[in-house]
Amino acid sequence: MKLLLISNSTNPGEEYLGWPRQDISNFLKDTGVKRILFIPYAGVTVTYNDYEAKVNAVFQQFGYEIYSIHHEQDPIRAVVEAEAIAVGGGNTFHLVREMQRTGIMQAIRGRVLAGIPYMGWSAGSNVACPTLRTTNDMPIVEPDSFNCMGLIPFQINPHYLDAHPAGHGGETREQRIEEFIAANPGVYVAGLREATSLQYDNGNLKLIGRHPMRIFRYGTTPREIQPGSEVGFLMLD
Amino acid sequence: MKLLLISNSTNPGEEYLGWPRQDISNFLKDTGVKRILFIPYAGVTVTYNDYEAKVNAVFQQFGYEIYSIHHEQDPIRAVVEAEAIAVGGGNTFHLVREMQRTGIMQAIRGRVLAGIPYMGWSAGSNVACPTLRTTNDMPIVEPDSFNCMGLIPFQINPHYLDAHPAGHGGETREQRIEEFIAANPGVYVAGLREATSLQYDNGNLKLIGRHPMRIFRYGTTPREIQPGSEVGFLMLD
């Protein structure tokens, strides 16, 4: 299995998919992949055509072609025939609903377990988890279920942030994740800060990027993991 | 129908249920209510006993007794016999799951439509809406459905905030609500800032509190409504 699970597409003041560009290029090197099937269903206020064009403009720069599943008559067949898959960010609930409705949730799972490269950012990282339960997104639509692909046995919280907006009386991100682990003891949560990714390759899971990640599990003190670390313990269910 | 839908319990640096205390007192005045059934199910990292005690300490100060539904053998009967109901904040998904599981979602709806006073803050305001789709909370558990009581025909976004944490690449609150209205055209969303409430009484809906609220609807420019304004248009489906 070969995964690149990216916290976020864009850092403030930088280009779209700017910071992870080199990581994506490294990830795809020597795979023989030329064309990548793109899943745009997290997009809500952008058209799928525009979303596809935006992502393609980035991937073209290092020699890959993006083609979006929304053009396909038979989306499951498109998944079965794909050389690699990329799932873009946006609203996780919208993404999960459409992946379930079209049947590609299970189809992609099967292909990735069979070895084709999978990349996802933000919502696209959430759907690689057992469920969507650690998304930050608003539940704007109701999916059939919260179950996702379970390519990894732990939960990612993308865009993990330490800051709390001034004057805000709601929960901090850490408090939200503490609620999650209280309601779901036994499950690890990886708080992936902006400009960090988890890469799984050759049986190794590694944190890459610019910042440490924060690991939560019920009954333990949260701990920080430095970029470059192997974190295979997260893959042990 | 008599509703007090409060954005948030606590402003930074102020006491628990400090800012809305006078509004709660005004709301209950002349109702004849003495005892208020409390729904603590949004609490996840607090015990229901502790949550009850914390809320009771506030309500006692102006002469009301809080008793929590988690002590009741027959929760639906407790709802049927209640003089008034207060639903506390916390995690909306946990609250909705427990309200559905115990059957009190429908029971409370019936009692409130029959006229008993209903107060809710944060998650407790969300469940008065048609669905939970405009909560800010993490979906830490999966309810049977996103459907809520529909005491009002529009959606509240509690803790509405304009600020965006520094260095955060995720969506702003306004972007999240824009995604909601794109996916749910025709539904109004009321962005209730901290220290504001919506009060429905004698057939009138009014914004009370310290700040304007921001109203969203697909295809229109968001607009600001000043505290003290009647906003009956939101009740027209």
Question: Can I get a quick summary?
Answer:
2 copies of one chain form a homodimer. Chain A is an alpha/beta fold.
CATH class division of the domain at 3-152 and 196-210 in chain A = Alpha Beta
Spatial gap, N to C terminus of chain A: 16 Å
**Largest sheet of chain A at a glance?**
7 strands, mixed
Q: Briefly note the CATH topology name of the domain at 3-152 and 196-210 in chain A.
A: Rossmann fold
Helical run tally of chain A: 7
Could you report the average pLDDT of chain A, rounded to the nearest whole number? 95
Residue stretches of chain A low in confidence (pLDDT < 50, at least 5 long) are none
Strand order in the largest sheet of chain A: 3-2-4-5-1-8-9
Total beta strands of chain A = 11
Oligomer: homodimer
Dominant shape of chain A: globular
The rounded Rg of chain A comes to 17 Å
Structural class of chain A: alpha/beta
Return the CATH architecture of the domain at 3-152 and 196-210 in chain A: 3-Layer(aba) Sandwich
- The amount of beta strand of chain A, in percent, is 15-25%
Question: Helicity of chain A, in percent?
Answer: 25-40%
Q: What is the fourth-level CATH superfamily of the domain at 3-152 and 196-210 in chain A? A: Class I glutamine amidotransferase (GATase) domain
The largest interface is: A-B, 47 and 47 residues
Reading the helices and strands of chain A in chain order gives EHEHEHEHHEHEHEEEEE
